[in-house]
Structures are given as structure tokens and as C-alpha cells.
Specification:
This protein has one helix and four strands; from the N terminus they run E-E-H-E-E. The protein is an alpha+beta fold and 164 residues long.
Length: 164
């Protein structure tokens, strides 16, 4: 019972009836001057071009090149000079160390000589006076005594001198 039909039956689609088809929407045409800031034409991943909000790239201000201050130039020029001077002083001291040690020993010897002279001079003078005083035949020495008195911190001083 199969009969031959002159036509073919096809299944229905969602838009098979004219009333089911979506209406064609006409988009308004915008001129480039009418597009507000922050909105731009973008292409979506499926290829459709549309308007979308965009963020402008952040404007990072580039600082202007500043001249090098004079104190920095001076410091930069002085640093190697000072370092070289310190190095030269260190080398000079290393060469001079034996001489400085000998000089310090000589200075200690000279200081000991000065101390000995300060102590020996009065002793020699005293012995020579005794020797000359006893050779004169008198054998007596003169003694001088001073008595000084003062009243108060800034008072006037009075004194007496006695010869014996």
C-alpha cells in the first residue's frame, strides 16, 4: 500500500509561516562625530561589528628629564679624588711606618732627657752653692722669711720680710 505521491513532505521550521519571521530592524546610522567619547566600534568574536563602551588607555605622564644638580656633579667629581687621596695616604703611612716607630722612640728618649735635666739642674745648683759657700770660709747662709697676711677673698695683702 504504498502509493506514489506527487509532492514531498518536509518538516516545518520555526519561520515557515510569514507571521513567525522576525521583523527586520533598521539600525540608525550614526556619523563618527555623533559617537560620544568612551564609545567606539568594536568587532565581536563572531564577526559582528557593534558600538561598545571602551576605556581609553591610561595616560601616564612622562616626567621631563631634569638636569643634574650642581652638588651632585661636585660630589661625583670629588669622590674619586678623596678616595685616591686616602689610598695614597695609606700607602705613604705603610712606607713611613718604620721611620715613625723610630721617631716615636727618639721622642720618648728626648722626653726622658728633658725630665732628667729638669730634675738634675736644681740638684747641681744646690751642690755648687754649698761648695762655693763653704769655700768662702763663712760657712753661714742667709735665710729670708716672708709672712704675708690678707683678710677676705679679695682683701689687701700685707707682708713682712725677715733676714736671719
Amino acid at each position: 500500500m504504498h502509493s506514489q505521491t506527487p509532492y514531498e513532505i518536509t518538516p516545518t521550521t520555526p519561520y515557515s509561516h510569514p507571521h513567525d519571521r522576525p521583523a527586520t530592524v533598521r539600525q540608525p546610522v550614526l556619523l563618527p562625530a555623533e559617537i560620544p567619547p568612551g564609545v567606539d566600534w568594536v568587532t565581536l568574536p563572531n564577526g559582528v561589528r557593534t558600538l561598545a563602551y571602551t576605556q581609553p588607555p591610561p595616560q601616564v605622564p612622562v616626567p621631563a628629564a631634569q638636569p643634574v644638580p650642581a652638588w651632585a656633579k661636585t660630589t661625583a667629581l670629588l669622590a674619586p679624588t678623596v678616595g685616591g687621596g686616602i689610598a695614597a695616604a695609606g700607602i705613604g703611612l705603610s712606607y713611613a711606618a718604620p721611620g715613625l716607630i723610630a721617631m716615636s722612640q727618639a721622642l720618648w728618649s728626648a722626653a726622658a732627657l728633658v725630665v732628667a735635666a729638669v730634675i738634675a739642674a736644681p740638684v747641681l745648683l744646690r751642690t755648687t752653692r754649698r761648695a762655693t759657700g763653704s769655700s768662702r770660709g763663712g760657712g753661714t747662709t742667709t735665710h729670708i722669711t716672708q709672712n704675708i697676711t690678707a683678710t677676705g677673698l679679695f682683701g689687701r695683702a700685707n707682708g713682712t720680710i725677715n733676714h736671719h
